[in-house]
Write a structure and sequence with these properties.
alpha+beta, disordered N terminus
């Protein structure tokens, strides 16, 4: 009996020891797993946090070098002036004070034609040679001013008749812009006012002062003509070209004024890209008075805030990449 008790006691102690060791081994394994799991979770959380720092939705980070590369210009929000304007149609015309109609002095047969439409001529250049009917003596038809031949009504073998010009020469270094002023704007337009002239959807742009307003209203168009003289040494203002004129009527001072190049439409809202400590953000704004250059901001932008006044297309593109999941901010 004592042997049986002793034997059972030994088996019990051995079993208990084994169980303790097994439990210890299991606990050690659990502790190890817990340590590994904790380390993995911490690492994963760190990665997520780092990624969150790297990429926050709606924020675009650009270095100074990148802003220079993409042509992004920064400005500080503040007061400015906006010119109220009226917009009117117009047309480029030859400067009527710098044009010459060349009429042959004597009737006769045209023997030579030396100049064509588009040719540049100098005063005294021979344009054509005509054989006079009186004595059959040839004489030269010459240019009376420097300019460009814009019309020619003479050919070899013809006999010019009457006072019809054989050539029309114009100095195109300056041109007239004839703007059509509607009746409702007649009291707002005066000589000396500044007018911005644009054509080809703003590709060509110039400014000049109104030098003349017609004293009568055209009975067909019911408009008066306001004239601006433009420098055309570049040759880009072709007579006959249709243009748009913006005439400044008065000046308005607003607390916050930005150039129109700073305004973008994002998610159906007008926004300005404001630079914060974290990067550029799209700041929704409400627009007040505008002209073709500037816009008044009546809500959404505060004085002193730094914003992208030009080159914001890059910022918008980066934000749109984020929204579609095609990329991330720098």
């Amino acid at each position: 009996m004592n042997k049986l008790v002793l034997l059972l006691t030994m088996f019990f102690l051995l079993g208990t020891g084994y169980g303790v060791k097994a439990q210890d081994d299991h606990d050690d394994h659990d502790d190890h797993n817990e340590t590994v799991s904790t380390t993995h979770d911490d690492h994963k959380e760190g990665e997520e946090h780092a990624d969150e720092d790297e990429h926050k939705e709606g924020i675009v980070r650009l270095s100074t070098a990148e802003m220079v590369e993409f042509g992004i210009v920064l400005d500080t929000a503040g007061p400015g002036k906006i010119r109220n304007e009226i917009v009117v149609p117009g047309e480029i015309a030859v400067n009527g004070d710098r044009i010459a109609h060349i009429v042959p002095r004597f009737s006769g047969v045209v023997k030579k034609v030396l100049k064509r439409i588009g040719d540049n001529v100098r005063t005294g250049d021979v344009l054509a040679v005509v054989e006079s009917n009186a004595g059959l003596t040839p004489y030269d038809v010459t240019a009376l001013m420097d300019g460009t031949v814009i019309d020619k009504q003479i050919n070899v073998g013809e006999v010019p008749q009457g006072d019809t010009p054989a050539f029309i020469i114009a100095d195109l270094d300056t041109v007239w812009v004839n703007l059509n002023i509607y009746q409702m704007h007649l009291t707002d337009v005066h000589t000396g006012q500044l007018a911005a002239i644009t054509s080809d959807h703003g590709i060509s742009y110039a400014t000049g002062k109104i030098s003349y307003i017609s004293p009568v209203v055209d009975e067909h168009t019911r408009t008066a003509t306001a004239r601006v003289v433009l420098d055309n040494s570049s040759g880009k203002w072709y007579p006959g070209l249709l243009v748009e004129g913006r005439i400044a009527t008065d000046l308005y001072t607003a607390p916050i004024v930005v150039p129109k190049t700073a305004l973008f439409n994002l998610d159906d809202a007008d926004v300005v890209f404001v630079l914060t400590d974290e990067g550029f953000v799209a700041q929704p704004v409400r627009i007040g008075r505008t002209n073709h250059v500037n816009a008044e901001i009546i809500e959404g932008l505060q004085e002193g805030q730094v914003y992208a006044s030009d080159g914001g297309f890059t910022i918008k593109a980066e934000m749109q990449k984020e929204s579609f999941g095609d990329g991330h901010a720098h």
